[in-house]
Amino acid sequence: MERETTNTFLLFINWLIPFLLLTLAPGAHSAAVIDSDAALAALLESGAFGPVMEDPKGHRVQVLYAPLSRDSTGAVSIRKYRYRVDQDEYFYPASTVKLPLAALALERLGTLPGADRTAVLLTGAATVEQSAVSYDAFGDGALPTVARYIEKIALVSDNDAYNRLYEWLGPEAVEARMAALGHEGVRIRHRLSVSLSPEAMQRLNPVRLLAPGARQWTWGARQAQPSPPGPALLLGQGEQLGGQLVPGPKAFDEKNAFPLEAQLTFLQSLYLPETVPPRQRLALPEADRRWFLERFGQLAPRSGYEAYAALPEGYVKFLAFGGRAPTLPEDLVIFNKVGDAYGFLTDVAYFVERSTQTEFLLAATVYVNANGIFNDDRYEYETLGFPFLEALGQQLLEDARRRPRERLAPADFERLIPWPP
Description:
The chain has 421 residues and is of the alpha+beta class. The protein is built from eleven helices and 16 strands. The chain has helices spanning 8-24, 37-44, 98-109, 146-156, 159-169, 171-180, 198-201, 260-271, 286-295, 381-402, 410-416; strands at residues 62-70, 76-78, 81-83, 120-123, 203-204, 207-211, 215-219, 222-223, 234-235, 238-241, 244-247, 250-251, 332-341, 344-353, 358-367, 373-374.
């Protein structure tokens, strides 16, 4: 489903009314806004965020909040406020690693003459544990294009789509590119939701890419050689494997890693590239770039794919909506990527509210696994994790709305944002 096109007069009215309400309401300017790490900590520890914040260390809470302001030309300024953000405090990133894989897949297409997002990615199988793909799994029999895989990652965080891009790009190429972009601590080690040995995870399928005009490229079966594992990372009390409880901490040193600071900076480099150093900007083909940015703000049930029509609009929107809201405000767009696994919930997002011209970046992670057992499906997502992230997003949305800032003409603001279809 497409959003209705709004004319300039209506845009002006939609901007004017909230502006007057904000500026004329009693006490509109009296409420303090977050202006330091200490102020963010005071909000989080105020008692408004439930049981999670009774033990932020035990729940491994990390929050990175970055409100935006623009001058009269639209140029962006960003301030960042941190709560317990620590690259050395590991959290399992789960599906958040799919965002860089999707972006780097698009960047690689730009290095192949004649290739674009409509290129077909055919995956072969060279070993018994590998599986081949020759048609798209949407169920409509279409060919598996790079664009389709990126859409599935953006709309529903599809695991198989990530795995196919992982097999094409290779983990060492992804790690090297992320390091070159200045993102520290990123580790890509494995496919998702596939039970394979560490050695099998590094065996990459043969791949063929077919571009318009009969151009094609092939990558044979490969053995990846990622960087050595980091220091030992032992978490929890045990793990359910094959129906049996294996006691003792689980090792995460060979699992994917994507620190919170790197997550937010990577998202920032995509949506606000002018705010990061040139070396941190991806070389995305301009013809595909805006399409890519739009996809991560699109809502699955509005995408036009029948398979997603019954999903709630808040699906894969953890911050502010808890991943379950049946509808989202028409005025608010959230460009984001979430992850949930092993009791960890993470969301990194760019919020944009059209009528108030409110913008901010927010990344947060929380751990909810009271019994310390992995793979037992007894995580406190619904009772602790999602309510915490929902409250956090709502509270910081209110803070961002209160912040003093320049107001652009509505039409000028419209042109700055890659609004989803």
